[in-house]
Predict the 3D structure of the following.
Amino acid sequence: MLSFIGRRLLLAIPTLVLVSVFTFSLQKLLPGDPVLTLAGEERSPEVLAMLRHKYHLDDPAPVQYLHWIGGVLHGDLGVSLKTDQPVVQMIGQKLPITIELALLAMAIALLLGIPAGVLAATRKGTAVDLGANVLALSGISVPPFWLGVLMILLFAVKLHWLPASGFAPLLEDPVQNLRTMLMPSLVIGAALSASLMRHTRGAMLAVLRADYIRTARAKGLLAPSVVLKHAFRNALVPIVTLTTLLFGELIGGAVLTEQVFTIPGFGKMIVDAVFTRDYAVVQGVVLCVACAFVLLNLLADVLYVVINPRLRVGA
Amino acid sequence: MTDVALPARAVPRRPRNRALAAFLRNRAAVAGAVVVLVFVAVAVLAPLLAPFDPLKTNFLLIRKAPSAAHWLGTDDLGRDILSRLLFGARASLLAGCISVAIALAIGVPVGLLSGYFGGWIDGVLSRVVEALLSCPFLVLAIALGAFLGPSLGNAMIAIGLSAMPIFARLTRGQVLAVKAEDYIAGARAIGLPDRWIVLRYVLPNALAPIVVQATLAIAGAIIAEASLSFLGLGQQPPAPSWGSMLNTAKNFLDQAPWMSISPGAAIFAAVLGFNLLGDGLRDALDPKEG
């Protein structure tokens, strides 16, 4: 078990190195000279050279990479070209907002997606199954920003129940915070629960077809206990793995919904950085997200083995 | 065909016909296919169908609600929304197809090489694919789109590159499964060249899931293009795209809600169509399902 985790950790290292190389080379795609944007009106050669030197833009690319990755390993993701603030500090400020949004969305997704998937699988072919499938398919097909816009039209413009914007930090004004977070987390939660429902249904159907379920039924066990005790526990393996992997969808959803609801989180920071060409921030964000994803993948693999004892031997 | 006149044949139907029959029995899949066909027809025939010039502004008609003349209303510059919607299908269809073509053109060869040859080639390619996969699709597309500069073409490149690793991984897995088959060992034993084996035997037998994934990826690419355009990184004004129409519309939610209803509904319908089609193809091509 420990050696399995160790091996997976070792395998994650080359991936992380490659991720950092990709992230670094992103800036080489950039058209135009960032120093020119930075300098503004002040375009004398001395100022440009000074700025180039300040941001290490005058070194050859591999040296720039080593310099950059050295800083990254020391927790230094560089300085925002726009605000002069350390990128790590900016991420630290924005991340809690998006984590709150993500937790709310994930809670909604788990509460809706898993029961719906189990229900659809146990009632395969009925109206319940059909309804759940139609809803789930709509959930993955609807553009999240449009769902957000529709919700604003209904709940903010028409009914005046919830504010369309006006985010307040959780610790300062919890009520206002939850009121502004409700719609965005529903938007992300809808998409996530749709994926989750489809996968739960698939996993449950695969398990319900298995011989040991037939045996349990043949022994005279009642349907609910078969479903909950025997089937769901085994279907849980792929579901848990998937839940960790939904992270990508979660971040993508956060980028779009934070834009729609003007929530000053991590996702909005990416978009703002993109538009102000603050590539130190974009790089930092991409690197952070990718590393988190690699670690979550690792966690998924480990959980997979923990939940499924059959894989422990020889894994 | 005059099947009725022929005596009943004991020969089972060919797998392809069986898959087609299974597909046609699936009403959701057929509905998806119809939506996709309508969507393609609208994109191709947009100039014939559109009642107005999609770029023609009219300051007397700013943000007019839907009427007999303008079925879906007009936008903030007095342009006819229906006409812009019909022309916007082109950006979505192009983005969907071209970015998936890019993803296929890179991802499938990478997966074939990786899966068929194994060894260090597989080791290197798999690490690269894994590294690319470790960045969430939309974040990667936004970052690439941002660094390449905002335009529809760059958005398609960004989406294609972001979708590529999925195809590489899928193809590799398929190839590994096919490679274990006896007929590949046979082909090797009689000394056929690798290139011939890969293109003639491995690829065709690995194709079905790739086709399914490509269909679903078009749905994903349409949403991604709309998302990038919504953020201002895709189709640039004044050219119409559903995402950028929504981007403008969100500033007028109070005054002109109709501006944001129809473009979103169009994206939703097109994506739903491709998702239904992809699900249907999967059910029809996968003998385990059902």
Observations:
- Chain A touches chain B through 50 residues (CB under 8 Å).
- Chain A is about 75% helix and 0% strand.
- Chain A has two domains: 1-87, 94-310.
